[in-house]
Design a protein that fits this description.
By secondary structure, the protein is of the alpha+beta class. It has twelve helices and eight strands. It starts with a helix and ends in a 30-residue tail after the last helix.
Length: 360
């Protein structure tokens, strides 16, 4: 009977203690989160409950598994201890990554809620995203190395690797030149403030918004919901347009080809009325000028401003649509025309002159 009750008490007790401590921790975090709604930290830390319970259970079993008295445990003492140690290391890394992510995200949320500069907020978001990825990668690498060092054979391998670290470093550097280049480019983007999450950019003739930045690649979401994935090294070695740099306000133009008799003064008044009724216009500037002329048309440019690229696109489309509709309804003669006429059927063609031998 003792052979049955002892392992049940050890294993069952560890599971019960783990469940109770996890429930208490979640209950405390929930109460603190309700008492401090101004910060999302305590609510985010509740996502650490599962790795915390795995860590506690592995630690309790690691310290008490030899007290079960089972023959199976005595025969495989080293293997079971090593397996629990591996679980303990993995759970510790899992908990560290979850806790770090909760702290970083809550800090960013509080900063974004109190900040008034949108460009600064995007810059901080880009930096903390890349820092979080670097910290997670370091924690995972350290945990993997610690798990490998629990095997005696790997310690010998580790010593051999350290002895030839110089040669391996050169080989790895040459083999991973592109990856390392993207890694350092990602850090340069994060702290060089050349591009941020949420910026509107034009790359390879495509306009879009920076949706995601990692240590190796960058994702641009275009206006038609496509995603363009590019290596981060592209943005450190190739010129590109950043429409959000130095502020999101933009100036745009609408070009119209009209007849030479177009009523320009009335068009200016109509443009001003259209902009006043357009919620996307920010009121900074507007104008209507003749910028060029051809033998058959005038090139009229309407200049408008908006708070960002999306609003500017709406303003330009609305101005173009309503000006053309107004001209067609009120001044149809101002629209470009092509004059054609049929040749008279009864017009004599005249005599055909014959070529002289010298002309031939």
């Amino acid at each position: 009977m003792e052979d049955v009750l002892r392992p049940l008490s050890v294993i069952g007790g560890s599971v019960v203690v783990t469940a109770v401590l996890g429930w208490l921790a979640d209950r405390v975090l929930r109460r603190i989160d309700a008492a401090h709604p101004e910060t999302p930290l305590w609510g985010a830390l509740r996502r650490c409950r599962i790795p915390l319970q795995v860590l506690l259970c592995a630690a309790l079993l690691r310290g008490s598994y030899d007290a079960t008295g089972l023959d199976l445990v005595r025969d495989h003492m080293v293997g079971i201890g090593r397996a629990l140690t591996l679980v303990l290391i993995a759970a510790s890394a899992w908990l560290t990554v979850r806790a770090a992510a909760a702290i970083v995200q809550s800090s960013y949320s509080r900063y974004a809620a109190n900040a008034h500069d949108a460009a600064r907020v995007r810059r901080v978001r880009t930096q903390i995203t890349l820092i979080q990825r670097v910290v997670s990668a370091i924690v995972i690498i350290v945990a993997a190395a610690a798990m490998l060092l629990t095997f005696p054979a790997m310690r010998t391998v580790g010593a051999s690797v350290l002895a030839s670290a110089g040669l391996l470093g050169i080989v790895a550097g040459v083999a991973a030149q592109s990856t390392l280049g993207n890694l350092f480019a990602g850090l340069q983007i994060a702290f060089g403030d050349m591009v941020r999450i949420g910026d509107t950019v034009v790359v390879n003739g495509e306009m879009g918004t920076i949706e995601e930045i990692t240590l190796t690649f960058l994702t641009v979401r275009t206006w038609d919901e496509r995603r363009i994935t590019m290596p981060v090294s592209y943005f450190t070695g190739t010129p590109f347009e950043n429409w959000s740099r130095g502020g999101a306000q933009l100036t745009g133009t609408v070009f119209l080809h009209l007849d030479h008799t177009a009523p320009l003064e009335e068009m200016r008044e109509q443009l001003h009325r259209i902009l006043q009724e357009c919620p996307e216009w920010d009121g900074r500037a507007w104008s209507l000028l003749v910028t060029d002329t051809t033998p058959s048309t005038l090139v009229v440019r309407a200049l408008v401003t908006a708070r960002d690229s999306d609003a500017l696109w709406q303003v330009r489309c609305r101005v173009r649509e309503r000006l053309i509709a107004w001209l067609a309804a009120e001044h149809p003669y101002a629209l470009p025309r092509i004059t054609t006429a049929a040749a008279p059927a009864d017009r004599p063609l005249g005599p055909v002159r014959q070529r002289t031998p010298e002309e031939h």
